[in-house]
Amino acid sequence: MVDRNDGDMPRRAPFLRVPKYFGQLGHFGQLGRSRAAPNVHADQRRPNAAGVQHMLQTSPAAQSASTRIAPAASSDVAIDLSNVTRRFVTPDGKAMTALRDFTMTVARGEFACVVGPTGCGKSTTLNLITGLAPPTAGEVRVMGQPVSGIRPDIGFVFQTDALFPWRSVLDNVAAGPMYRGASRKQAYEKARDWLNRVGLSRFEKHYPHQLSGGMRKRVALAQTFINEPKILLMDEPFSALDIQTRTLMQDELLRLWEDSGASVVFVTHDLEEAVALADKVYVLTAGPATVKSVYHIDLPRPRVMEDIRYDPKFVEIARVIWEDLKQEVHIGQKRTLEFGH
Ligand SMILES: Nc1ncnc2c1ncn2[C@@H]1O[C@H](COP(=O)(O)OP(=O)(O)OP(=O)(O)O)[C@@H](O)[C@H]1O
């Protein structure tokens, strides 16, 4: 199912990077066309004068197979961005709008992925949730409260590791609980437990530079999950890893997340990754970023990453979303070519 907003929102200035989707998704067109119609359909919301809301079916099969998902009760909502606009002042003193009229709701325990063209405003979305970037207009609420400053129940994982290079693996993982007031004994017991959960018990005395990229990422996950975050914000956390390690880490993340009950917002350039992980995929416009469509991914859980990519339903869902996203990527690419950045 998809909620769509692809109306007449103004488009913004050009992008800095060439989109990465083309190489990754070239095969969907071929595989998808011979498959059954996807189990998704679209609600199309156009922000025009009449404010018309109507249903757009992607296929007859979709019509029968899908139902509208009722909005969560407010007590079930973990993250709520309501009609948020975020403007920045650029280094040359001009105002630029990164996000416009942006609305997103993530339920408690839900895994939401955000995809969109390069530079459209995905990371800004995460910064709004953290409170690092207050909204220029609209409202951001976390666990029912307006965001004011950084919350201790939010965990982060970024593309680059946030490990202390001068601390051992064990010291790195124990740092969070100690900072939050646990005794040294409690913190180290908990850290050993988490290192065990991510399969790194034998490496507790190693330093980050003595680990592989995948192992460092496991430490980063242990370092984050040990603090029992209610909200987990992830910004392309696995994009620097090779594909095999990335697949392993995606499985690891799902396993830890399923036990944690955290609500996740996961930003990625990789649509396959988004579909494989998410309950819900937000497709953003080429900018200023607004929500173009929301796809509810009804693939069963638990999911095994190395298998799910060959599931025909997965392939078809990814193909449908890619058709939608591709339009925005083309807009971004056109701007890059026209404006040279
Ligand atoms: N602090 C800031 N000051 C000025 N402009 C900013 C600031 N932060 C972000 N921007 C601009 O806002 C836009 C969106 O940036 P953002 O990093 O959110 O995009 P993104 O989709 O995460 O990018 P990418 O795909 O490259 O990871 C960009 O044009 C960026 O230059």
TrEMBL record:
Q: What are the protein's GO molecular function terms?
A: ATP binding; ATP hydrolysis activity
Keywords of this entry: ATP-binding, Nucleotide-binding, Transport
Pfam families in alphabetical order: ABC_tran
Q: Which PROSITE patterns match?
A: ABC_TRANSPORTER_1 (PS00211), ABC_TRANSPORTER_2 (PS50893)
Q: Which residues form the ABC transporter domain?
A: 79-311
Which branch of life, at top level? Bacteria
Fetch the SMART domains from UniProt: AAA
**Cleavable signal peptide:** none
Q: Which SUPFAM superfamilies match?
A: P-loop containing nucleoside triphosphate hydrolases
Keyword Disulfide bond appears in the UniProt entry: no
What protein family does this chain belong to? Belongs to the ABC transporter superfamily.
UniProt protein name:
NitT/TauT family transport system ATP-binding protein
Phylogenetic classification of the source organism: Bacteria, Pseudomonadati, Pseudomonadota, Alphaproteobacteria, Hyphomicrobiales
